[in-house]
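FAQ: What does a ligand-bound record look like?

Like this one, built around fe (ii) ion:
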Amino acid sequence: MDNYIIDSRNDKEFQEIIKELIENETVQSMNNYLQHCKTTCYEHCYRVSYLCYKFCKKHNLDYKSAARAGMLHDLFLYDWRKKAETGRKGLHAYTHGATACDNASKLFDLSEKEKDMIRNHMFPVTVYPPKSVEGFILTIVDKYCTMAEFNQYICEKYSMQSLIINYVINKFGLMI
Ligand SMILES: [Fe+2]
Ligand SMILES: [Fe+2]
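The answer part, i.e. the structure of the complex:
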């Protein structure tokens, strides 16, 4: 996975697309919240953004919206493990897409497609599917990155070589 991060830094078009987003202080504040294991929300969103961008560009899809929505899809801005402290209502898994969409819409001029992609990225956990192909790709890439982040954590924690799950991840990565 880390190779993708290195590639992304050398990809001028990708950097140009997400420049406005990653220079924003609120987006950067995602570094203060853990998403999966040791991965911060910012790292997770950046990874999702780049993989969505790569896949959509390769397949002649709307890669700009894919990169933007990917970078903002988890902009919920709280520690989801501490419900009592944040006072939020509803289960995080069901509500944070809408929260991220509201937060992102206040900061950036998003298209209706980008809003829909962010709002419905948790499908099929949530009821409504995204309305675009790029939105479906975001739902899949998000789950793939989540799995990879858990895998990385488990392997590091137990000093394990990545076995079957890493094989699948590498295979999937090669496909992108
Ligand atoms: Fe999410
Ligand atoms: Fe996510």
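Follow-up question: can I read anything off the structure? Yes, for example: Residues 73-74, 96, 121-122 surround fe (ii) ion (ligand 1) (CB under 6 Å).
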